[in-house]
């Protein structure tokens, strides 16, 4: 499982790198146009004509960043979430029976489980919204069977939790109903994606990949209002594009 997750990490990075290279090429082209427009040889009508392509390229940066995804997850638009390591449902996996917790689509906040012993239902909520799921068909006498795992998807919350039986490779413990009661998931806003690369939910087996918002409208590139329609605009654009190119490369 760890090897597969490491391979997925490499694949994700390859997707992101391809788009970052494309964005860098666009920024270089915009920089070239800005340098042309910054020459006193051109008049404002010339700059207006050049700015047409310049503005199109700026929109192309946003389109590229917005369409860069891996397994449905946008990689270059920022606004990611990650699981804080203080989350007891993960930190105490040996007693909760969890092996993987995904929170990519969750809102930031603290989520608490209600998991009463003897009842094959699990509830998870953050004080605003709660979802309850019946998992009885996946349990035998209230326990995940040996060698098996159950993925519990709280789709309305954007969270999925994998529960394991004994003998599952990489699993720290076995889930029995009631084990998650009162345990928490703490979801943070983050500029990184969290990926599982080892068997546990500890920091040693989690990889955080920081990929910031790479849209032109984002704070990193800061190109939302850039133009080259006047000589001063063009000269300012050259400096701003140099800074943006450093950010993307």
UniProtKB/TrEMBL annotation:
GO cellular component: bacterial-type flagellum
InterPro entries: Flagellin (IPR001492), Flagellin_N (IPR001029)
All copies of domain Flagellin N-terminal, residue ranges: 3-81
A Gene Ontology molecular function term of the record: structural molecule activity
Name of this chain's protein: Flagellin N-terminal domain-containing protein
């Amino acid at each position: 499982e760890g090897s597969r997750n490491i391979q997925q990490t490499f694949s994700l990075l390859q997707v992101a790198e391809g788009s970052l290279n494309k964005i860098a090429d666009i920024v270089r082209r915009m920089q070239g146009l800005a340098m042309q427009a910054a020459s006193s040889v051109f008049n404002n009508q010339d700059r207006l004509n050049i700015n047409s392509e310049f503005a199109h390229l700026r929109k192309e940066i946003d389109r590229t960043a917005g369409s860069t995804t891996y397994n449905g997850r946008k990689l270059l638009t920022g606004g990611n979430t990650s699981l804080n390591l203080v989350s007891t449902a993960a930190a105490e996996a040996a007693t909760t029976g969890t092996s993987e917790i995904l929170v990519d689509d969750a809102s930031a906040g603290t989520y608490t489980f209600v998991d009463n012993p003897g009842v094959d239902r699990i509830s998870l909520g953050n004080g605003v919204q709660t979802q309850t799921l019946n998992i009885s068909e996946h349990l035998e006498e209230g326990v995940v069977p040996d060698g098996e795992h159950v993925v519990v998807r709280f789709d309305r919350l954007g969270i999925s939790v994998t529960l394991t039986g004994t003998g599952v490779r990489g699993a720290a413990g076995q889930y029995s109903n009631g084990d998650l009661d009162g345990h928490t998931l703490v979801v943070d806003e983050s500029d990184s994606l969290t990926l599982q690369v080892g068997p546990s939910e500890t920091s040693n087996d989690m990889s955080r990949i920081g990929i910031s918002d790479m849209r032109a409208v984002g704070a990193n590139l800061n190109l939302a209002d850039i133009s080259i329609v006047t000589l001063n605009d063009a000269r300012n654009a050259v400096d701003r594009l140099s800074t943006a190119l450093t950010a993307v490369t």
